[in-house]
Design brief:
GTP Cyclohydrolase I, domain 2; 3 domains; globular; 14 strands; five-stranded mixed β-sheet; homodimer; alpha+beta; six-stranded mixed β-sheet
Chain lengths: 501, 501
Amino acid sequence: MSREEEMGALEEGRFDPEVSDNTVGEGAGGPAMGTMENAVRVLLMGLGEDSEREGLRKTPIRVAKAFREGTRGNNEFVDAFVGYRQKVEDIVQGAFFPEAGLNNGIGHAGGDGGLVVVRDINLFSYCESCLLPFSIKCHVGYIPSGQRVVGLSKLSRVADVYAKRLQEPQRLADEICQALQNSIRPAGVSVALQCWHIQFPKVLKCINLNLPRHPSRSSMQGWVHTSVCSSTGVFEQKKSSFSDDFHTLLQFSGANFDLSNTGCSIHSWCLLRSLDVPESNDDMMRNNLLNGRIFSKPVVSHTSMVAAVASIILSLGEDPSRKELVGTPYRYVHWLMNFSRSNIDIRQNGFLLNAINSHKSSNGYIHRENEINSELNLPFCAQCEHHLLPFHGVVHIGYFHDEEKKDIDRSSLQTMVHFYGCKLQVQERLTRQIAEAVYSVLGRGVMVVLEANHICMVSRGIEKVGSSTATIAVMGQFSTDITAKALFLEAISKVTAAVGP
Amino acid sequence: MSREEEMGALEEGRFDPEVSDNTVGEGAGGPAMGTMENAVRVLLMGLGEDSEREGLRKTPIRVAKAFREGTRGNNEFVDAFVGYRQKVEDIVQGAFFPEAGLNNGIGHAGGDGGLVVVRDINLFSYCESCLLPFSIKCHVGYIPSGQRVVGLSKLSRVADVYAKRLQEPQRLADEICQALQNSIRPAGVSVALQCWHIQFPKVLKCINLNLPRHPSRSSMQGWVHTSVCSSTGVFEQKKSSFSDDFHTLLQFSGANFDLSNTGCSIHSWCLLRSLDVPESNDDMMRNNLLNGRIFSKPVVSHTSMVAAVASIILSLGEDPSRKELVGTPYRYVHWLMNFSRSNIDIRQNGFLLNAINSHKSSNGYIHRENEINSELNLPFCAQCEHHLLPFHGVVHIGYFHDEEKKDIDRSSLQTMVHFYGCKLQVQERLTRQIAEAVYSVLGRGVMVVLEANHICMVSRGIEKVGSSTATIAVMGQFSTDITAKALFLEAISKVTAAVGP
């Protein structure tokens, strides 16, 4: 039995919880889901992939579910057949509690005038300019009035309803703020958001290569960051100190809310926004060819891919002709095409063979210990083939120094990491491919450690914020030499120690 | 219209998402839910509370839902009417993907022998000894074999199924490990858990009062911590280095997994476990009376409360006569009774009046700035009246120094915080009550800042790990003197700076 058959047999006739679970409110099917699945198949074909290959076979339904889950704020609205404000009022309505204000003296507290702040609510939203998820730390403050308070978890739930849409940071802050003001009717509401937007792989390649190596803590480094704020009522009054108190309490929790950074423009926030969207998609096709990017023969046109994304947006209950969304399908396809399948192999391409011997020993990144060279913290951004969502982090490569063959310089290794990352991937395979590529030119022994954050682990139903994944591949001398392995791992942990916990 | 009527009117006839949402798999009702709700009403009455008062009216259904949600790992089993191993196999079955091993050379990678680790999966479980939730950071490593890998999110999902039960750390690690071994059939699995169990309020009072003041980062300080590990296959082999590699990768992510701390006994893990469970609950009643704890007349006996908790355990699909669960109802009631309603008021009790004048100015905790005294980082643990789950953190109290009345010493303020914390509470009210109590003896001006972590924000469907809540109450001179307010907040932030970000 071939491997493919074996895998098929494993799945045949089985209950598949990935497909039937995590359903929010609706049945698993429906015409909108079918439309989205077909659209994702078009995208996979446009990427030069076989959408029927193992690993991609269920990607269309996974992606459709992730999109629906990620925009369920819309779906709640659509499902409920009620007005939008009504829905939020429903969330908070059952959770008002009478709390007396102060019973004597002048002051503010309890159910009247005392500041209440919920800090560090982790949210995920989708950028309306490019359909990529962005990460949010949301802070909400309000001043109760009328001797009543609202259940604390409701502030988080309302924020989540507005995050789960195609959004833009300032509008998100404004919408959460207005919805809470209208539903709770307090003396004032203030919403502060810290938002992080992932960058292009091409941009990532150019940024500071000396990223801190701890992916779960530094995961937002190298992302575009913006802070936005929205306020109503007493928070808007210049002479009141409520706004100052709110921001002081945010500082206490380590939020470092940088007001000077507020108001990052949409162009600098979403770097894809700065793309000129061509009148015709033929331009895009021509540009890609001019840029020399090699596709396996695309079986579908870029126009079809752009149309497919527009149909996804429509299926999510959004209007693709809304001003902010007009260029979105083009931008998303542009992002995706960074991960299009290439049939060339970097090893056969002669690239690495040319790169060796060019090593300069003055390179500060190289640790020479017992002839082991370590190149640490090579950043990467790949696309998870199961969910079409990015995973990103750092690669550490250790290899035995070979007097004859010399070393590979860091930028060549970085280019190689970029090459293998820029396609639909799984972390285990990416780790193996990098190891094999290095081993193919430097035969003695190679060890690769890859540490990554998977957006699919947080932006879908899983929501395991802070989790990170590490994989190891070991070839040649490293697989028998435990001391060498330990030395390389120690080299990585030294960098950790230098960066600090 | 009275305030109560107004609150009632707000809720009447409304859709209540707290009650109808967050339902996992089942309908909202069912006989088990009704049994649990009745049992919670018995507990509320045993605490001397009016279960019909606003704020508590929906507590029975909230608590029942939280228990069901927190033990849904059982429910999945019960619902599915399938064997236990079968269920976990269903979770992973749809998520196997073929991944080639290395195509040449000696080594381990990809679908064969390369270590795969998912770190820092945040989970919550319920302690089987006392029914209180405990917090978990779960790390899973496995060595793929047979040229296939499993979807990364499945490791987290399987861990969650076993966490969502009445558990004990070592058994939890063993069960996750065995379930993954049996369903994935890799070369080996290793599961490492870091667990934190909340302490008693009475114990909390005695621990180091100089806790770091950042609740969201230090929230686990002062909790009982234990680390456990469970391994199968190649991780158990002494000569293999897989186990070392796994723990090294955990150190990279800052886990500081302390193997020397492994194997904390169940008695030191759950402090309630060290209670002698009396043969008869009459003993408990007598002990409580001997200890001089003043209850408002309990309308239900302690025996009824213990029986009510046993009925909750039964409704969750557990056997209350299972060895580990026999003393659990008694221990949970013992914990709850820390929060029983008292009709005395600490202000009328003369306690604070006796405490003033006893201040020694050598107390290092007092910052005297413009006559403002600051007592910072007074720890507390209260019980959320909406969910019967703890919220805990620190209180900062600032008050104007009064030459005539002198100061209140820190231990008296701590006792007061403890007094107001040890009942069914909401954070806004607790903040107000502390401010009022201090103001009643030191009239010039009082400001209270309370920073807390609410377990109800993470252990139910909300799962906002890392969020924290801050409230402010301001009385007298502080409400008009913005400079004084700012000085006090600055005193708090100075402590932050000293502790470090």
